């Protein structure tokens, strides 16, 4: 059985997006091997929340990795707008941000973020959240 999973990485810094894409590709292989069936991983990138919302209209994204501090539309605004759209509201969002203030973390979670990882992050932290999110999706 072959299936696919599309993941979106939203970050305004190209180097950070590239790093996250590589991490997700590596983690995807590990996580999907454990699930048994062959899963094709597809990654879509966006430089800000506005572009991400536009791409979500055409993509069947299963998980979003999201930065908070971005031009044009920041991550908190993105989360708020995503929640307003019934077809997007249930997509899990893992926030990866340098912002670590408790009030921002809580606000992101109230707006629907399923996890919050502070940059700079360790691959192990990313793996735990990714594995947990994927396992919830395949239940």
Give a short summary of the structure.
The chain has five helices and five strands. With 139 residues, the protein is α/β, with parallel strands linked by helices. Strands 2-1-3-4-5 form a five-stranded parallel sheet.
Number of E-type strands: 5
Report, as a whole number of angstroms, the end-to-end distance. 16 Å
Mean pLDDT: 89
Q: Return the string of H and E elements.
A: EHEHEHEHEH
Name the descriptors.
single chain, 139 residues, alpha/beta, five-stranded parallel β-sheet, 5 helices, 5 strands, 25% strand
Describe this entry's structure for a reader.
The chain has 139 residues and is of the alpha/beta class. The chain is 46% helix and 25% strand. The chain has a five-stranded parallel beta sheet with strand order 2-1-3-4-5. The two termini are 16 Å apart. The model has no long low-confidence stretch (mean pLDDT 89).
Layout: helices, strands, pairs:
Elements: E1 2-10, H1 14-35, E2 38-46, H2 49-56, E3 61-66, H3 75-83, E4 93-97, H4 102-110, E5 113-118, H5 123-138
Parallel strand pairs: 1-2, 1-3, 3-4, 4-5
Helix pairs in contact: 1-5, 2-3
